[in-house]
Design brief:
The chain is α+β, with helices and mostly antiparallel strands and about 180 residues long. The protein contains three helices and seven strands, in the order αβββββββαα. It has helices spanning about 30, 115-135, 170-175, and strands at about 40, 60-65, 70-80, 80-85, 90, 95-105, 110. The protein is flat and about 90 Å long.
Length: about 180
């Protein structure tokens, strides 16, 4: 029989709960607050069937555009592949990037760390600017490429000339030199 093309087809391992993470869902999942504009990662929890996003969105990062009582509205980019239209006909998405707005329950969403490095760099730059202003100097907080490693001279190395041993056919046939 041919393979099925259902809503949850090929998700046996994708939606499976991780090793030693089965059972009850921690309360922090429900007590966490999300604000509009936050970045979130969609990570499907296979134990909760309600409000589960399609397998395409699993592992994607999106921006919160709506917060409801039990769910989060997430705006996710969709590029390439195929998309289902209301009449169950395949429509090509082609080379466009479509912003999809989906509602996902809080169990399937976790705060993203994609802006963590940026926020830390911003705080560090603010501290550097404050210190420079105190000293009365101007500094550049732009990131610079690392550049090539500095050159050095090798000292204490001795040259050794290696010459090949002439090949002797007669001794080779006898079994050695």
């Amino acid at each position: 029989m041919p393979a099925g093309h259902g809503l949850r087809s090929r998700t046996r391992d994708l939606f499976a709960r991780p090793f030693r993470k089965k059972g009850y869902i921690p309360l922090t999942t429900y007590l966490r607050t999300f604000h509009i504009g936050d970045y979130v990662d969609i990570k499907v929890n296979g134990a909760v069937h309600k409000g589960m996003p399609h397998k395409f969105y699993h592992g994607r990062t999106g921006k919160v555009w709506n917060v409801t009582k039990r769910a989060i509205g997430v705006e996710v980019n969709k590029q390439g592949g195929r998309e289902m239209c209301p009449k169950n006909q395949d429509i090509k998405v082609g080379n466009r990037i479509i912003k999809k707005r989906i509602h996902v329950r809080v169990e399937h969403v976790q705060p993203s760390r994609c802006t963590e490095e940026f926020r830390l760099r911003k705080l560090k730059n603010d501290e550097l600017k404050a210190a420079a202003k105190k000293n009365g100097e101007t500094i550049s907080t732009k990131r610079q490429p690392e550049g090539p490693k500095p050159g050095f001279m090798v000292e204490g190395a001795t040259l050794e000339t290696v010459t090949p041993i002439p090949y002797d056919v007669v001794n080779d046939l006898k079994g050695g030199y």
